[in-house]
Each structure stands twice: as structure tokens, then as C-alpha cells.
UniProtKB/TrEMBL annotation:
SUPFAM superfamilies: FMN-binding split barrel. This is Pyridoxamine 5'-phosphate oxidase family protein. Pfam families: PNPOx_N. Residues 9-135 form the Pyridoxamine 5'-phosphate oxidase N-terminal domain. It comes from Azohydromonas lata.
Length: 159
């Protein structure tokens, strides 16, 4: 993958505020929308979700999920060639008492300050999504798959 394509796709994770989250719900695929944050130099994405939401129960029952982040439509790309990042990830709940929770919360609030009130609600929790594979599409004929160290290295690159 060339540097321009890599940077374009990495910027999607840094700049786009929401992703489509795919979970397994009662044996059927289900997709919802989640705000997320990917900290610099980290490979995990963090989401803050309500325990009342079906996708949260799905995360706990079947932690392997899909996450799709796309470029905004209306840009220089035709709809079929929108740059996008599709991740397969393992969801791990973060205990409120842990250091990871506090760090993830601070990063999440820095990106989504309007969500501060949801951290006061007892049913919301943080999850870390640890990617295990990625499919990166930079446009027509610009598709790449990443796993293992290649994926970790790419996720840590600056946007």
C-alpha cells in the first residue's frame, strides 16, 4: 500500500466520529452506529455504550465484531469507491476501576465532550475493540488486507 492510501485510510479512523458496528444478535447479523475513538499510538478503538442497547449485550455474548468506517459521501469519489476501513475486532469490557477505563474515558470525552452526562449513568460502559484483521479500500483497485504485526503497525501510524 502506498503512503498516500495508507494516510487517507488512517485519517478516516482519526477524523470520522462514528462507525457501523456489526454484532451477532440471536444468531443473526445486526448493525448499529457507535461513536469511537482511536488514540494515537494505540491499536485499540474505544466505544462507550449503554447496557440497555442490544449491541452491548451482543458484545458480551459474542465478542468478535465488525466495524466499518467510511469517508463522507459527496467527496471526490463515486459511491462504490468510497474509501473505507473494515475491521474485525474482539470487544473487551473495561472495568470502571481500572486504569484503562480512566484513560479511555478521558480520550473519549476529549473527542465527544457532549457525552459527559452518559458517564454519570450506571448502565453505560467502555469497551476496547482490539482489531484482529482489516480490509482497507482506498478506491477502485486499491484494496488491502492487514493482519497481525502489519495491522498493528498501520494502526499506530500518525493520521
Amino acid at each position: 500500500m502506498d503512503a498516500d492510501t495508507s494516510s487517507l485510510l488512517r485519517r478516516l479512523l482519526a477524523e470520522r466520529p462514528v462507525a457501523a458496528l456489526a454484532t451477532l444478535h440471536r444468531g443473526e447479523p445486526a448493525v448499529s452506529m457507535v461513536p469511537f475513538v482511536l488514540p494515537a499510538q494505540d491499536t485499540r478503538l474505544f466505544i462507550h455504550v449503554s447496557g440497555l442497547a442490544t449491541h452491548t449485550r451482543d458484545l458480551l455474548e459474542h465478542p468478535r465484531v465488525g466495524l466499518l468506517v467510511t469517508a463522507a459521501d459527496g467527496g471526490p469519489w463515486p459511491a462504490q469507491a468510497l474509501p473505507r476501513v473494515s475491521l474485525q475486532a474482539d470487544a473487551v469490557p473495561l472495568p470502571r476501576e481500572g486504569g484503562d477505563y480512566a484513560a479511555a474515558k478521558a480520550l473519549y470525552l476529549a473527542r465527544f465532550p457532549d457525552s459527559a452526562q452518559t458517564f454519570e449513568l450506571g448502565d453505560f460502559g467502555m469497551f476496547a475493540l482490539q482489531p484482529v484483521s482489516a480490509r482497507l479500500i482506498g478506491g477502485f483497485g486499491r484494496a488491502h488486507s492487514l493482519v497481525a504485526e502489519g495491522l498493528s503497525t498501520w494502526l499506530r501510524e500518525p493520521a
